[in-house]
């Protein structure tokens, strides 16, 4: 299965999503994914010591999002009524962006579903 194919469940509830390696290399995306390469590398770096990023910010498409949750395997950041969710599997990071009118909990649940599918397939 291609990286992009894994993102299908997230596409229905988010503005855009992507998969990056744990080093920040872009593997594929769906929808309106606006993060650039340096932003994606930063997402990967967050997982090296996530607790140190709590209360800090990340950028997505040049816009600043405050990190309001930083766990070993999941990071959530928000700017007004939109947000970014990052979740790590064994080898990659699944990322999703939601906008006003989309439900963060639904996006988070779908990201988790994709991560579990990846883990089940050895990723």
From TrEMBL:
The keyword Cytoplasm is annotated on this UniProt entry: yes
Cell compartments where the protein resides: Cytoplasm, Cytoskeleton
Keyword flag Glycosyltransferase: no
SMART domains: PROF
Primary localization: cytoplasm
GO cellular component, one term: cell cortex
GO terms of molecular function: actin monomer binding
Keywords: Actin-binding, Cytoplasm, Cytoskeleton
Homology family: Belongs to the profilin family.
The name this protein goes by in its record: Profilin
Annotated organism of origin: Tritrichomonas foetus
